[in-house]
Amino acid sequence: MDVIKFVIWVAAAYFIGNISPSIILGKLKGVDIKKEGSGNAGTTNALRVLGKKAAVITLVIDIGKGALAVYLGSRFGNDEIAMACALAVFCGHIWPCLYSFKGGKGVATAFGALLAVNWLMAFLVLFVVAAGVLLSQRMSVGSLLGAVSFPLICWLIERDFIYIGSLMAFIVLIKHIPNIKRLIKGEEPKLFSKKEEKNEK
């Protein structure tokens, strides 16, 4: 494998992950989304703080950047580079150096990356997430169920991705620890609740 090519495309994927539509849209409205609502630079907090239009834009761009990073790694590199780009864009979204390493939880970006790796796996995970959200009315529940099911789906369909997929799932679970605590206490707000979650990251 060409090490220089690997480093270039993985670094590019990380910085693609740094693109944060929720932060940018917040600044256009004079709002620092990292200091409002949950403080999380993702779709759910964009919905609560900035509204539905901003949330849709955030979701589309976060998914798109995940898919783009993997596509570029595959198009100009190889499968190994593409899979490394999936992890890199995911980490770039969660820990963006351009925003003091404070980003989102990576769920939408992970879905976009997975969509480019294997669309069938992506839609199976989406089905699990959607079922969790519809039944609980909480995005966090859907995200947690999606993360738990992710390694199993990788093992069944795309075993080459199981190690990176499992690592991404583990990180998503870690990022949702505040949500898990609130779920246990019965304090996790529903999806369209405007209740602020100051401790969520």
What attributes characterize this protein structure?
Glycerol-3-phosphate acyltransferase; disordered C terminus; single chain; 72% helix; 201 residues; membrane; phospholipid biosynthesis; transmembrane helix; mainly alpha; 10 helices
Quickly describe the structure.
This protein is about 70% helix and about 0% strand. It is an all-alpha fold and about 200 residues long.
Unreliable spans:
194-201
Could you tell me the mean pLDDT? 92
Rg measurement, Å: 16 Å
Work out the number of β strands: 0
Task: Give the percentage of residues in beta strands.
Answer: under 5%
In percent, how helical is the residue content?
Answer: over 70%
Shape: globular
Transmembrane segments: 6-25, 54-74, 80-101, 113-135, 147-174
Catalytic activity: an acyl phosphate + sn-glycerol 3-phosphate = a 1-acyl-sn-glycero-3-phosphate + phosphate
EC number: 2.3.1.275
Pfam family, one: G3P_acyltransf
Q: Topology of this structure?
A:
Layout: H1 3-18, H2 21-28, H3 43-50, H4 52-76, H5 79-94, H6 107-117, H7 119-136, H8 139-157, H9 162-175, H10 177-185
Helix pairs in contact: 1-4, 1-5, 3-4, 4-5, 4-6, 5-6, 6-7, 7-8, 8-9
Describe this structure in words.
It holds the Pfam family G3P_acyltransf. It is a multi-pass membrane protein. It is found in: Cell membrane. The protein is mainly α. The protein has one domain (3-185). 72% of the residues lie in helices and 0% in strands. The protein contains ten helices and no strands. The protein has helices spanning 3-18, 21-28, 43-50, 52-76, 79-94, 107-117, 119-136, 139-157, 162-175, 177-185. Helix 1 (3-18) runs antiparallel to helix 4 (52-76). The longest helix has 25 residues, at 52-76. The protein starts with a helix and ends in a 16-residue tail after the last helix. 50% of the residues are buried. The model is unreliable at 194-201 (pLDDT under 50).
